[in-house]
């Protein structure tokens, strides 16, 4: 009876892991499909930049992980050596996905703080400490585990052994760093919307998008990482793969959406600016035809022109 219960529990864990992997894969693929038109317009038709490179890596490395993970979970011909390599791949992929999304978020916050070097130094220093700490824990754990490909009717399933009880600590540095980034975004949002005026009046929607996406990313990813930590504290080793799949899927989708949202707003601002410039040019031509050569720009008009140029430079940096 005890053996039957053990087998039933193991099969239940395997089924739950497979369903979770399919669900996380469906999230990634669905997000790819519904944003494909935006990707073509906003990414592939633009020149290469750091933001474009991060988007491509984040999007297509994660898509590759979907293929590898589903092969490892549903292939009937796995070996012990493959299972061990798969657990190494999955562990480092989870960390890499978190790091890429955090780099994207740092770029946005750096823009929100108008290229403040002190804020950049704070973020980079804590990012290095956080990533190094999580990488050290992951590397230590992966060096000590073993893996076995258990045969089941019609398939095999990879099971890890030797996972230490402190493995949950992998998520602690990530959660702390994400909390810092959220605090910076909230503080900048409070500063922005408390101000009575702004040099970038027409660009305030862009700032709002940056703040909104940063806070939304934190809320979703904090819940995801905290759930990961709780599962790793209390669940059996057979269930450790479930939360990793969702952390990779959500960090990928939210990171890509941050880039696409900002680029979409930037494009709308550029279209609006071109339309406004065209109308002003036609008005000047009409005035010149009636009243002769136009007068030199006034002090107010020069101030507006400088503000427009500053706003354009700011928005161009944001969409790196």
Automatic annotation (TrEMBL):
Listed Basic and acidic residues bias regions: 271-280
Residue stretches making up the DUF6533 domain: 20-64
Transmembrane segments: 53-74, 86-107, 119-145, 165-187, 214-233
Superkingdom of the source species: Eukaryota
InterPro entries: DUF6533
Residue segments, region Disordered: 271-297
Pfam families from the UniProt entry: DUF6533
Keywords from the UniProt entry: Membrane, Transmembrane, Transmembrane helix
The UniProt record lists the keyword Translocase: no
Name of the featured protein: DUF6533 domain-containing protein
């Amino acid at each position: 009876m005890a053996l039957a219960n053990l087998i039933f529990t193991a099969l239940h864990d395997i089924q739950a892991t497979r369903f979770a992997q399919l669900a996380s894969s469906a999230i990634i693929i669905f997000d790819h499909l519904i944003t494909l038109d935006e990707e073509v317009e906003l990414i592939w038709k633009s020149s290469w930049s750091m933001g474009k490179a991060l988007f491509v890596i984040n999007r297509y490395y994660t898509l590759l992980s979907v293929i590898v993970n589903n092969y490892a979970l549903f292939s009937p011909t796995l070996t012990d050596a493959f299972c061990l390599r798969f657990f190494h791949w999955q562990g480092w992929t989870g960390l890499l996905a978190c790091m890429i999304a955090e780099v994207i978020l740092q770029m946005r916050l750096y823009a929100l703080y108008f290229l403040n070097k002190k804020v950049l130094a704070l973020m980079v220093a804590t990012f290095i400490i956080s990533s190094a700490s999580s990488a050290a824990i992951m590397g230590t754990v992966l060096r000590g585990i073993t893996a076995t490909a258990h045969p089941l009717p019609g398939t095999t399933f990879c099971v890890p052994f030797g996972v230490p009880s402190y493995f949950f600590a992998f998520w602690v540095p990530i959660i702390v760093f994400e909390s810092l980034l959220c605090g910076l975004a909230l503080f900048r949002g409070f500063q922005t919307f408390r101000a009575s005026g702004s040099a970038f009046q027409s660009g305030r929607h862009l700032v709002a998008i940056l703040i909104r996406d940063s806070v939304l990313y934190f809320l979703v990813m904090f819940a995801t990482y905290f759930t990961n930590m709780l599962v790793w504290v209390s669940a059996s080793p057979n269930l450790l793969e479930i939360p990793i799949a969702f952390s990779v899927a959500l960090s990928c989708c939210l990171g890509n959406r941050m880039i696409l949202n900002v680029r979409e707003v930037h494009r709308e601002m550029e279209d609006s600016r071109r339309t406004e410039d065209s109308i002003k040019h036609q008005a000047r031509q009409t005035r010149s035809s009636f009243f002769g050569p136009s007068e030199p720009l006034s002090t107010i008009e020069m101030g507006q022109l400088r503000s427009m140029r500053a706003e354009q430079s700011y928005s161009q940096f944001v969409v790196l």
